[in-house]
Amino acid sequence: MEKFIYLDNAATTKTAPEVVEAMLPYFTEYYGNASAVYSLGSKSKEAIAKARKIIADSLGAKDNEIYFTAGGSEADNWALKATAEAYREKGNHIITSKIEHHAILHTCEYLEKQGFEVTYLDVDENGVIKLDQLKAAIRPTTILISIMFANNEIGTVEPVAEIGKIAKERGILFHTDAVQAFGQIPIQVDELNIDMLSASGHKLNGPKGIGFLYIRKGVKIRSYIHGGAQERKRRAGTENVPGIVGLGKAVELAFDTMEERTAKERELRDYLLKTVLKEVPFTRVNGSRTHRLPNNANFCFQFIEGESLLIMLDMEGICGSSGSACTSGSLDPSHVLLAIGLPHEIAHGSLRLTLGADTTKEEIDTAITAIKKIVAQLREMSPLYEDYMKKNGSQQ
Ligand SMILES: *Cc1c(COP(=O)(O)O)cnc(C)c1O
Question: Taking the complete model, does pTM exceed 0.90, yes or no?
Fold first, then answer.
């Protein structure tokens, strides 16, 4: 097997061997339909119930408040579209932020076309929403506040407790996209006044294509997929039993190991941030230094293109990511980096490295050496860098 230094755990994670092992029998041995009467079906039904309980317990929720979906994007779509529909008589206004995942932002744009009004809150230079702006944005017609728990690009953790408190005081539903935070940060839905929460298996060493939406009891929310009676008739379709079992196992592992794992990641990540800042000139760290996911590092290297850096890191077997998405031939810088106030030319030079449970100090050291070398090479070829050094070089 080819060896990679995998530092893109915010994009997806390796499925843990224990998770794969837990899933396998539900492909080959216990393949019964959970709705069937015979005992083979009950095996599936029991496995689903067990996973649901693990997840509910991890959030301080009730079992019947957890609805399995095909991942984070579906959970986000469901929370927004179904709330919009169910609460249309109360109002047509939704509040979100400028730095949400596209599963939220593009769903909001769709809802705007359906006649809903959406306020996209600004964030400060660290990527934190402004609570005063949130309070001021609330109208009598506001039905939903949807703010992510932690940002997938810059790792900033939002003031969820405060947002939940404001939402509750004003009688507005609060949804949070916790796809990045779930399994990394303890979350109790009652304490935080969260009414709906999205999470995804493949972001916490579980399988891809499975996730869930937590929906607090009493929230009026319509069925998302019509058909059979699965998921309390709200999300029809034969359950993805191996996926659900794998998600349950992944959640169990993530919560059992959370303290130790995140402490180790935080230490390595801080070493990575500190060393890169020290050894690579004209570099900045994006996102909050204090309210931050333990495994996230995000840099901007002036005078270079993030895409070129990624390609050259890949040649050294290092997997990272950049905020820019290559759309229709033009490189658009990340909406998140623009929202924290970075100019386009700086935002273009971004690199996100996200650590995992298995990441080692040696891997981080190898990555730092490679970054240092490649950034210097790319700057050698950069006319912007050359210009800058001609004008300011002597003062450096
Ligand atoms: C990955 C991600 C999603 C999408 O989840 P999928 O399971 O890939 O659909 C949504 N929101 C955030 C913050 C994410 O990081």
Answer: yes
